[in-house]
Design a protein that fits this description.
Elements: E1 3-8, H1 16-29, E2 33-37, H2 40-45, E3 49-52, H3 79-91, E4 96-101, H4 103-114, E5 118-123, H5 139-160, E6 163-168, H6 175-182, E7 188-190, H7 198-210, E8 216-221, H8 227-238, E9 242-246, H9 258-276, E10 282-287, E11 290-295, H10 307-311, H11 313-316
Parallel strand pairs: 1-2, 1-4, 4-5, 5-10, 6-8, 6-9, 7-8
Antiparallel strand pairs: 2-3, 10-11
Helix pairs in contact: 1-9, 7-8
Main location: cytoplasm
Cofactor: Mg(2+)
GO biological process, one term: canonical glycolysis
Length: 318
């Protein structure tokens, strides 16, 4: 008799709720009992589990965040934490699990798989930093949020003919900055995959100003520079007034886009179906519009493998 647990782990991402809904509804369809695990792996270790039915998830698909709550759990990184988690799963009779999260969360999924639990991962992180899938849940919504913010910043930049340096999230992956620029917002971009020096940023900005473009957005991925140092450097060299804006957590919340909700639903359904077919230790993804699943052990973060996509910008940002 199959009994399924579902949890969200790591940073929340829009679309997590839609994925939970799809998992619960699909399980219900197959008469599988589902337990929601609150607060990610931490909640699992602490035994925070409760029964989830179809009606519990009727109104969550359009909500940001995760109604199951989430955590980054240091205890689960240790063997002792995982043993505790395993014993809770045994107590509840849970032998199948769906984990919705990013790379760190998938490491835990792999560990549980090795301990004999049947597990499938669903990629959810606004950073889109997983190499095996074109998109992770949350990325599209966050990109749209960023574009909305950049549009507003552009209005005021244009009115005052000013430059703003905008820092976006992404951890060590430049996709959010890169796709924002591809979507038309950003004159100069610097990402971990193609990091510009302060001097290079200055020289590109100088060229833009000399060509008559006085309002400019400089997009940078977080964790690369101190934004105030960059502002000061540019102002000292170019005699222009530069503003800064760190978009911060506004990027992570909000109603998931149609794209994220649909992808989440497809992935949630697929995850349960894979478990029903006897698969474990797999991560669901999407590649060139096809749903795929890969060995979760082989899932890595993208980091610096994105230079091809950056080169797409060479012509339009020249
Ligand atoms: O992984 C999602 C993300 O929002 C990153 O973009 C960011 O670097 C990080 O999480 C922030 O994490 P925390 O919520 O732990 O501060």
């Amino acid at each position: 008799m199959m009994k399924l647990g579902v949890l969200t782990s790591g940073g929340d991402a829009p679309g997590m709720n839609a994925a939970i809904r799809a998992v619960v509804k699909t399980a219900d369809y197959h008469n599988i009992e589902v337990m929601g695990i609150e607060g990610g792996y931490q909640g699992l270790i602490e035994g925070k589990l409760h029964r989830l039915t179809s009606t519990d998830v009727d109104y969550i698909a359009d909500k940001g965040g995760t109604f199951l709550k989430t955590s980054r759990c240091a205890e689960f990184m240790k063997e002792s934490g995982r043993i505790k988690a395993l014993s809770i799963l045994k107590d509840y009779g849970i032998n199948h699990l769906v984990v919705i999260g990013g790379e760190g969360s998938f490491k835990g999924t792999q560990n549980l798989h090795e301990l004999g639990v049947n597990v499938i991962g669903i990629p959810a992180t606004i950073d889109n930093d997983l190499s095996y899938t074109d998109y992770s849940l949350g990325f599209d919504t966050t990109l749209n949020t960023i574009l909305e913010c950049l549009g507003k910043i552009k209005d005021t930049d244009l009115s005052h003919e000013k430059t703003t340096i905008v820092e976006v999230m992404g951890r060590y992956c430049g996709d959010l900055a890169l796709y924002s620029a591809l979507a038309g917002a950003g004159e100069i971009i610097s990402t971990p995959e193609r990091k510009l020096s302060f001097e290079e940023i200055c020289s590109k900005l100088n060229e833009k100003i000399k060509s008559g473009k006085k309002d400019n957005l400089i997009l940078i991925t977080e964790k690369m520079y101190d934004i105030q140092d960059l502002q000061k450097y540019v102002e000292d060299r170019l005699d222009v007034s530069v503003r800064t804006s760190i978009l911060g957590f506004i990027q992570r919340g909000g109603q998931p886009s149609a794209f994220d909700r649909i992808l989440a639903s497809k992935m949630g359904i697929t995850a349960v179906e894979l478990l029903l077919k006897g698969y474990s230790g797999r991560a669901v993804g999407i590649k060139e519009n096809d749903l795929i699943n890969v060995d979760i052990e082989k899932v890595h973060s993208k980091l610096s493998s994105n230079d091809d996509k950056c080169s797409l910008l060479d012509t339009i940002l020249a």
